[in-house]
User: Fold this.
Amino acid sequence: MRLSYILYITISFILITQISGMAQNLVPDGSFEQYLDCPHDYGTVRLGILRHWRATPGDCTPDYFHHCGKNDFSTEKNTCGGLPPQDGHGYAGLIIRTGEGKNQADLYYREAIQTELSEVLRPNARYIVRFYVARSVYSAYAAGNIGVLLTPHPIEISALKDYPAQVKHPEIITSTEWVKIEDTIVARGGERYLTIGEFERYENRKILPLSVPAKYSKRFSYPRAYYFIDKVSVEFLDEPNASREVVLTREAPSSYIVSHDFGDIQPGKPVVLQGIKFEYNQAELLPQSEVTLKKLYRLLLLHPQIKIIIVGHTDEKGTAEYNQLLSEERARRVAMYLINKGISPERIRFKGKGASEPLNTADTPEAHEENRRVEFIIEP
Assistant:
């Protein structure tokens, strides 16, 4: 009896350890708490004030704010406006993009921060990447494409290049409260370094001027899209191809902020599959549809917990009965593409709505083309 009890306790301890290990945050000091000195000036990340984070490129000057900070570098009141941390007592601050400058070089300028993960990412394993951002209240510009880049080696971010970020929020974030950015990724294997910033070429930048009170114009963050960063995490989710008897898994999040390919997706909200094309009055998918179809397949592969509805639409030309049949058949073709790629039929429903839900009621060729579409909806 005593031996069985000991074995039970031992096995339970191992299982608890495995489960808790899966939820372990691989980002050391994701809430920016481990500092060498209280912040008291600009650009202190470059000077090594944080134990686990560095500036990239090496000559850029991200900032650090903490409850103990002096001379306007605390979290509650600082030179960029102040905001209670999302977690803990500190956070970082970055110039994501500049909105005004004396020359072109000033407009190219951007900042990023980088850390080394506590372990290398496993090949083909899935991880949840999550962090929080908030725009400085004094910032007269807002930016998009804020994201995370994971690399095998430390990288120096150039102002003139773009980088294949694994997580990216394409929408411009104007909120001065904390916004969660989260996505599930499949690791290639060997990724060890995490960088947060904006990784698009200058020509593809997303920056928006805002109506910020002129009294803020003397503030440091005013001519810039300046953001606070906090609570960064990378957590192991599972290995889809591994045996479920060996790898314990937990469910992926029921909602998430951003997809690589479709931006912000809300369950129950239709997403138009831009790029899906058919022959006129036919249901045969044209070759150029492959790019968009692969994006949808990737979404379903990365998030096996979701189920979707494929919905076909036509314009108002033709009879209601004909349009209903055509729209349904087009939706079926998209569904069959995904099923033939290996997605379970239980995760996909399809239906047609004919011309009953136009996006544009104008009687123009452009409006008709806009109404001829295929959408998908994540089931709530």
User: Anything to note?
Assistant: The first strand starts at residue 54 and ends at 56. Residues 2-22 form the longest helix (21 residues). The domain at 24-238 is CATH 2.60.120.260 (Jelly Rolls).
